[in-house]
Amino acid sequence: MEEREEAVRACGRGNAFWIKGQLDKALAAFDEAIQLEPAYARAWCNRGTLHYERGEYEAALSDLDEALRLEPEYPRALNNRGVVYRTLGQFEKAIADYTEAIRLRPDYADAYANRAVAYAKLGETEKAEADRQTAQKLHESARQGKLAAS
């Protein structure tokens, strides 16, 4: 259990470095988390997403695939892998990942927004507009919920 806790802390450090724009330090922290706890899907997802941000698409796919191997029903990893596929022009694969993320988490506004972009790239304007509207409603609903809670 101690290694898992250390891995969670390392992942948290990675996120903090990432927010500060210290990408090399963030990557090292995610590497440490994975070394401590190889089955920690969140660390794989975060490292994969960081690889994407750095333009390292193959490494991003590899890490996101591993996150999903470890936790097949991980909506964020599916959404983020969809973003990589979309960037690579693999729109059908992107849509499949966004659709699965939405199935697992029907209120996932970002997945709807991302799927809207992929549909638009394929010229499926009606589907794109429907997803864009759903994403907008979900974002508004989330904002209203935060306002009500404050």
Write the layout of secondary structure elements.
Layout (H helix, E strand, L loop, with lengths): L1 H18 L3 H14 L4 H13 L3 H14 L4 H13 L3 H14 L4 H13 L3 H25 L1
Helix pairs in contact: 1-2, 1-3, 2-3, 3-4, 3-5, 4-5, 5-6, 5-7, 6-7, 7-8
Verbal overview:
There is one protein chain. The chain is mainly α. The protein has two domains: 1-71, Serine Threonine Protein Phosphatase 5, Tetratricopeptide repeat (Alpha Horseshoe), CATH 1.25.40; 73-150, Serine Threonine Protein Phosphatase 5, Tetratricopeptide repeat (Alpha Horseshoe). Helices cover 83% and strands 0% of the residues. It has helices at residues 2-19, 23-36, 41-53, 57-70, 75-87, 91-104, 109-121, 125-149. Helix 1 packs antiparallel against helix 2 (23-36), helix 3 (41-53) packs parallel to helix 5 and helix 4 (57-70) packs antiparallel against helix 5 (75-87). The longest helix has 25 residues, at 125-149. The termini are far apart. 39% of the residues are buried.
